[in-house]
Design a protein that fits this description.
The complex is a heterodimer of chains A (about 170) and B (about 130). Chain A is about 35% helix and about 30% strand. With about 170 residues, chain A is α+β, with helices and mostly antiparallel strands. A five-stranded parallel sheet of chain B has the order 2-1-3-4-5, with helices on both faces. Chain B has one domain: 3-Layer(aba) Sandwich (Rossmann fold). The chains are: A alpha+beta (about 170), B alpha/beta (about 130). Chains A and B meet through helix 2 and helix 3 of A and helix 1 of B.
Amino acid sequence: MKEDIAEIIQEYALSHFKRFSELSTMQTTISAKEKKIKLHDLSAVISMGSSKINIIIVFSADKTFVDKLTQLETNGIELDKDEYYEMLHATLAETANIILGHTTRDVGLNKSPISLSPPMLIESSNSMTCAKKASLKSIIFISQYGNIEIHIVKPTGNHNPILEECIS
Amino acid sequence: MNDTNIKLNVMLVDDSILILRILEDILKELGHSVVAKAKNGKEAIELYKQHNPDMLLLDITMPGEFNGIEVCRQIKSNYPDGVIIMCTSHGQESMVRDAIKAGAKSYILKPVNKLTVTKHIEQIFSKPKA
C-alpha cells in the first residue's frame, strides 16, 4: 500500500480520468521542486484535515481539459450556455471530491477519520506562493486536451500522527 | 429501457448540478421519470411531500440546515415505506452507516454510472421469481 499522500492521490486521479478512453494516454509526474503554484483557468481548493492538522489541496486545470471532462461526464447531455458554465465548475469540484474521498479512506484506514471541506472555486490564471513554513508537492497530469495539476500544501511544524506519516 | 419492466417516479437530491444531470440522464434512459430535483435538504423535504416519489436518490453531504442523513430521518419518520438510496463518495463510510440506521435502503458510490444505478434499482424493486 502506498504511504505518500501525493502517490495515493495520483493513483486515484489517474484511475478516475482513465475511465474514459479519450484520457487513457494521460501522462503524470510528481514534483516537489516548486514553491509557487501557477493557477490554470479553473481551480478548486479543498482543505483536508483532522482536529490537529490541515493540508490544502489545489486542483487547477486548463479550461480545455475541464471542457473535455465535462463532455465525457455528461455523456453528450444537451446543456444551455448558463447551465454549461455552472457544469464546468461542478465537474471540477466533483472530480476533486471523488478523488480526495477515495484518498481519505486510505489515509484514515483503521485510524481517526479525515474530513474534507467543500471545494472553493477560483476562476483565474494567477499564482499562489507558499509561505516559508509550508512545503509543496505537485502532481501534474498531461493530456491531449490540456493539463490538470494537483498541488498539496503542507504546513511544517504541525504534527499529527495520522496525516504526518503520509506526507513525506 | 430497464429489465425489470417497472417505471419509477424518482426524486433526486444533490448540491451538484453535474450529479443531478448525470442521474437524470441515466434514469430517463432506463425508462424511469424524474419527478423532482432538489439542491439542498430543506427543498428536498418540501418536494418529497409534494411528489411522494417511488424512490429518492439522496446525497449525504449537502450545504444548509439539513444534510442527507437528517433528510433521510425526517422523510422516513413521515413516510416509513419510502425507498431512499444514498449517494456518497468514498471516505464517508461512517455517514453511510448513520444513513442506513436512519432508514436508507442502500447507497451508491460516486462517480455514478448506469450499471450501478440499474443494479440498485433491480435489487430493491425486482419481484422474487416464483
